Structures are given as C-alpha cells and as structure tokens.
UniProtKB/TrEMBL annotation:
PANTHER family registered for this protein in UniProt: CYCLIN-RELATED F-BOX FAMILY, F-BOX ASSOCIATED DOMAIN-CONTAINING PROTEIN-RELATED
UniProt cross-references to InterPro entries, sorted A to Z: F-box_Sdz-33, Zygotic_Embryogenesis-Asso
Domain Sdz-33 F-box stretches: 211-272
Name this protein carries in UniProt: Sdz-33 F-box domain-containing protein
Species name: Caenorhabditis nigoni
Gene symbol of the encoding locus: Cnig_chr_III.g11277
Pfam families xrefs: FBA_2
C-alpha cells in the first residue's frame, strides 16, 4: 500500500511539475508541445488556455490561427504541389510553420514572425485540425474560412473533421466563377448554414441563392458582391444585422424594403448597412429612397437622417451619405 501511494504521489508531483513548467512557457511553445504525445496533449488541455478564437483557413496552404488575450499564434501547413492537384484533408503537409505575434505588415516568412518549422508529425491535414481543435472544448471559439478553388472539399469529410463553427467565411474568385466553384460554394453554405451564427460571403456567384442565406436565423450576414447583385433576398431577411458592399445603390429595392418593414416585415432586423462604390461620382436621388415612407427629418451635423415607424410603433432611423464616388445607407432599429 505504501509503495502504491508513493507511486501515485510521484505521478501527481510529476504532473504538477509539468504543468508549472507549461504555465511558464509561451503559447506557441505550449501548442508545439501538445504534439509530442497524447499525454502532452492531455496536459495542455488541462491548462484551459485563455483562447479567444480559433480560425481555420482552408486554402491552398491551410492555416489555423489561435488568438489569445494578448497574443497570437498561427500554424501554416505547406502542402505538396508536385502532382499539380489541389490539396485535400487526407494529404500530409510537407511541413508546418509555427508563427507567433503575427504582425500584419510583415510577410508570413519574415523571420520576425516565424518561430519554428515542424515536420508533419506523421499526421494528415485532417488529423492536424482535429488535434489542434481538441486543445480547447469551448464550442464558441471556432470559425472557418473557405477559399473556393484553393482546396478540394469533401463536404461530408469536412463536416466530420471541423468542430462546431460559430462563423464561416466563403471566398469566391472575383472573376467569372466556374460551375464547379458555384456548386462548391453552395455545398459549403448548405453544409454549415444551419449551425453558424455569422456568415460572410465574398464575391459570390451571380446566381448564388442569397435568399436561402438571408432566411437563416443568423446574428450577422455580410456580403461583398461583384456587380449586378440581385437584392430580392432583402425582402426575406431573417438576420439581426446585415452588411452589403456592392457597386450599386438599390434605391427602389430599399424603398420597397422600408415599406414592407413599416408593415411589419423583417422583425428580427436591428441593423442594415449598404455601401457602394462606383467609378462615376453620381449623387444618388434620395427622394427615390424615401418616396411614400412618411419619414421625419432628423438631420444632424450635415448628415441626412430620417425617422420612420412601423405598424407596431417601433422607431427606426435611416441615415444616408454620399462622398465622392461612394454612397451609403444605414438603417438602425431602436431597441
């Protein structure tokens, strides 16, 4: 019994000592140490690191970024391009670059950013993602960014690999998107839309079904559009906040949208922001926007503001602005 207690005590003291050593290490070193063994990973998990967010960036050379309270750690996976095929989750990275305190104005390979280059530890990209995302069990941390065309996405395998996500970003090419990329972007959105809180879509295809995205029960929807964006999805929005960046100001669509809001539509919406930038500096005809709204002027400090109320007596403010080649409309609903 004495020997047994002594062995248990020694193991506990050894673990306590290991934890104290880990607590004194930098975050990037702790993450690297977690790859040593299953026991090392368990020790790192027990630290409950103060991670603010984890972003998984699925692109040609995938990246996983850890944001801490006062620190930043990034792991970049260099994939094999010798076969001239896009990478997949089942591929082994050539190596893994670990960077800390990443400075946005420095290149990724700048020695002031890079800390160490690791081997792939015998793990596929999928196993790396699962390993790093197991460091914390906080399901509110994770977000993913998908660069359509940069990787081969097996949607079912992707869903089984990634943790529960709070936010997704989908980037399409700014050029005319091919049919395969359109289908890929739609499949990604379909796979994750029901579980996320925030969605950001960049340069989506012209025929991308935005109405299905807008109808989702989201906290935030952001759209960076190519030209000729179809604004019909506005009329079925079911989000709390929506931001749209485009090259056109849809005055008639917005007028119709505000009239429907007055009648009780879009009850969840608290903020709508539309910003457009055009080559020609033409001042929008704000009278088209305000026609038939029975709005009250609330101009302040040179900014044009208008107040409208819906059928439930809820008050909202429309703020319009034009500066050079850009124009914006901000719609804010009072609490």
């Amino acid at each position: 019994m004495t020997t047994q207690v002594s062995n248990q005590t020694q193991r506990r003291l050894a673990n306590d000592l290991s934890l104290n050593v880990l607590r004194a290490m930098k975050y990037h070193a702790i993450i690297v140490y977690s790859c040593v063994s299953k026991k090392a990973l368990a020790l790192v998990q027990s630290l409950h690191l103060p991670i603010k967010s984890v972003q998984i960036i699925m692109k040609e050379d995938p990246v996983i970024e850890f944001e801490f309270r006062n620190d930043f750690v990034s792991l970049e996976f260099e994939m094999d391009r010798n076969n001239e095929q896009v990478a997949s989750l089942n591929d082994h990275p050539v190596n893994v670059k670990v960077l800390k305190d990443k400075l946005s104005y420095l290149a990724n390979d700048d020695p002031r950013n890079q800390v160490v280059t690791m081997s792939n530890q015998g793990m596929t990209l999928r196993e790396w993602i699962q390993h790093l995302c197991s460091i914390s069990n906080n399901v509110k941390l994770y977000e993913a960014e998908f660069r359509v065309g940069g990787m081969e996405f097996d949607i079912q395998l992707l869903r089984n690999t990634l943790p529960k996500l709070r936010k997704i970003h989908i980037y399409c090419t700014q050029d005319e998107t091919g049919q395969n990329e359109i289908i890929c972007a739609q499949n990604l959105m379909r796979a994750f839309l029901s579980n996320v809180q925030d969605v950001q879509l960049y340069f989506g295809p012209l025929h991308f079904p935005l109405e299905h995205v807008g109808m989702a029960n989201l906290n935030y929807l952001q759209i960076h559009s190519r030209s000729n964006l179809n604004y019909d999805f506005l009329f079925t929005l079911n989000v709390e906040s929506c931001s749209i960046h485009s090259d056109q100001m849809p005055l008639r669509d917005l007028n119709r949208f505000f009239k429907l809001w007055i009648k009780g539509s879009n009850p969840r919406l608290m903020k709508l922001f539309i910003w457009c930038d055009t080559v020609v500096p033409i001042v929008p005809d704000w009278n088209v926007l305000l026609k038939g709204l029975r709005s009250e002027d609330a101009e302040a400090e040179g900014i044009k503001k208008y107040i409208i109320r819906n059928c439930r007596g809820i008050r909202a403010q429309i703020e319009v602005e034009h500066l050079g080649t850009s124009a914006s409309v901000i719609f804010l609903v009072s609490n």
